Amino acid sequence: MSPSPRSSDSVRSAAVVNEEIRDLWQRSGGCLSPDDEEEYQRLLVEWAVVTGGSARSAA
Questions:
Q1: What is the mean pLDDT of residues 46-55?
Q2: What is the mean pLDDT of the chain?
């Protein structure tokens, strides 16, 4: 698998990351493949970083 085209030095806004998360769920039809799940987890971590929160939600 090739590295992500995004530079670790660039910071995207929470809105941009959130939109990408929404797009991922829409494309997947609500059922994430293993590759989609990996991307989703990466996006959650990125979103948590830009919002100052945690990527883990309370169960």
A1: 86
A2: 84
Number of separate domains in the chain: 1
Cβ atoms 45, 11 nearer than 8 A: no
Whether 58 shows a pLDDT value over 60: the answer reads no
The answer to whether position 2 is within a domain reads no
The answer to whether residue 5 is domain-embedded is: no
Q: Is the dihedral of CA 24, 14, 4, 41 positive or negative?
A: negative
The token pair that represents 2 in the structure block = 């090739």
- Lookup result for tokens 């929404």: 22
Q: Which domain, by its residues, includes 21?
A: 14-51
Q: What pLDDT does residue 59 have?
A: 44
Specify whether the CB–CB gap between 54 and 48 falls below 8 A.
Answer: yes
User: In this structure, what token pair is assigned to residue 30?
Assistant: 């609500």
Q: Is residue 22 in some structural domain?
A: yes
